[in-house]
Write a structure and sequence with these properties.
104 residues, 434 Repressor (Amino-terminal Domain), globular
Length: 104
């Protein structure tokens, strides 16, 4: 699911429309949400460091359009790419699994 599809679904939910209930659609929705969240984290850290997309791309051995796509939520980076981004952003990469909270 690309950003436009995610945005359409989000708007439908805001309008109270029932989203399609199918496992593939939900999986794609979660993937788009993850891509968006990761992109926002990269953008926030890059701008906090005062780096341009081009400078970050050079630090990672990438091209500027790839950084733009990541920041825009257009792709879910692989673990090795996340590691390169973290190093280039002078940050630690932490992946954590936490249990879901259960209602009492």
């Amino acid at each position: 699911m690309n950003h436009a599809e995610w945005k359409t679904r989000h708007h439908r939910e805001l309008l109270g429309e029932k989203a399609e209930e199918n496992a593939e659609y939900d999986r794609l929705y979660e993937e788009a949400e993850l891509a968006h969240d990761l992109g926002q984290l990269v953008y926030d850290r890059r701008t906090a460091l005062g780096l341009s997309q081009t400078e970050l791309a050079e630090r990672c051995g990438m091209k500027q359009p790839q950084v733009s796509r990541i920041e825009g939520g257009g792709t879910v980076p692989t673990i090795p790419l996340l590691r390169r981004l973290a190093r280039a952003l002078d940050a630690d990469l932490t992946i954590e699994l936490t249990p879901h909270h259960q209602a009492a």
